[in-house]
Amino acid sequence: SRCDSASIAQITTPLPMAVLSVAGARIRTNNPLNPSEGYVVRAESRNSATFFGSNPQLTFIKGIGDAAVYHQVRLGGVIAFRIRLGSIWGGADVGGAKQPPQQERLYAGGASSVRGFQQNELGSLLYVFDNGVTIHHVPPGPGTDSAVFFTLDSTARDRRVVPVGGNTLFVANLDYRVQSPFLPQLLQFTFFTDVGTVWNRNTQTNFGGFRPQWTPGIGLRVATPLGPIQVNAGYNPYPPVFGQALFTPPRTLAAEGFTGVYCAVPTGTPNPPLSTFVNGAWVQEANVHCQPTFQPPPPKGWLQRLTFTFSIGPDF
Question: Helix, strand, or coil here: 7?
Fold first, then answer.
């Protein structure tokens, strides 16, 4: 999943990384697995510095905190509210901004976050293709080498989605949990609404990246000794986000020198990123920024806007 340029640069050479982590929690609830009264406060700090032994490209300061409150109301219902905040500073210089290591970036979306999005898919995304891409050869001109560029066919469908993450996080959840009329000690229904966003603070001005997105939904909770098993259906009213389209050629093209990760663009895009043949492989031009020009087809109906998530254990 190291597909963006910063992540690739950070793992193509051996760089030492050392992290000092400190975490604390205060838990005052009446049940550790399925609380109905009380509160929880947690905080964690992770720090990577050169005097710990880390390479300067992998230095960062990271802080995450969340707080949850539970309150039982009449007829056995429980209102649960959680807010989660996070920020990270440092990382490698990418286009005038700092980009922390991928595994330390902040993500949102999923069964314990914003439930209208799949795991970590709230925020910027990369779309990875291994077919549906046309390779165009550019003949050499005076004093230039031959080159290739890649365009998306009309039938192109992404093979997988890679979350980019960000350096700033905001998530809030509001649940109303009620016991089922049947097997009330075993089953609960959850009516929820989630709101959240992830963005890169250093590449925006005046919090221009703070665009919270909210997703309502309903869930079913089944009590078990390991904690509740939860199935949620969150409604996502938003169109698919635009993102970079990256082409990872299949093995059949490796013999021709297509062994890297390449930017693909829609047909007709002016000045597409070029790749040249260097030492037996096609290499994309250095310092090329792949523009977020690809958008998956939008959902055709409200059923396709439902996001289903599954988890075991407490959601907050």
Answer: helix
How does DSSP classify residue 297?
P
For residues 287 and 281, the model is more confident at 281
DSSP class of residue 298?
P
What Cα–Cα distance (Å) separates residue 302 from each residue in 147, 194, 219, 305?
44, 18, 17, 5
- 139-154 average pLDDT score: 80
Residue 103 burial (10 A CB sphere; 0-12, 13-18, 19+): exposed
CA distance linking residue 189 with residue 180, whole number of Å: 6
Element (H, E) at 161: strand 160-163
Per-residue pLDDT reduced to its tens digit, 8-59: 766 777 889 999 999 999 999 998 888 999 999 999 999 999 999 998 888 9
* pLDDT bucket at 174, cuts 50 / 70 / 90: very high
Average pLDDT over residues 198-222: 77
Pull the structure tokens for residue 9: 């640069």
DSSP 213: E
Q: Does the CA dihedral 116-122-125-130 come out positive or negative? A: negative
> Residue 162's beta-bridge partner residues?
126
Tokens matching residue 82 = 């959680």
Helix (H, G, I), strand (E, B) or coil at 132: coil
DSSP 39: E
Instruction: For CA atoms 300, 216, 77, 316, give the dihedral sign.
Output: positive
Q: What is the pLDDT of residues 63-83, one digit of tens each?
A: 999 999 999 998 779 999 999
Amino acid identity, position 245:
A
Q: What is the largest CA-CA distance in the chain?
A: 81
Do strands 92-94 and 78-90 pair parallel, antiparallel, or not at all (unpaired)? unpaired
How far is it, in rounded angstroms, from Cα 12 to Cα 161?
Answer: 22
Q: What angle do CA 168, 47, 99 make, to 5 degrees?
A: 45
Report the DSSP beta bridge partners of residue 97. Answer: 94
Do the Cβ atoms of 117 and 199 come closer than 8 Å?
no
Distance CA 206, CA 88 (A): 17
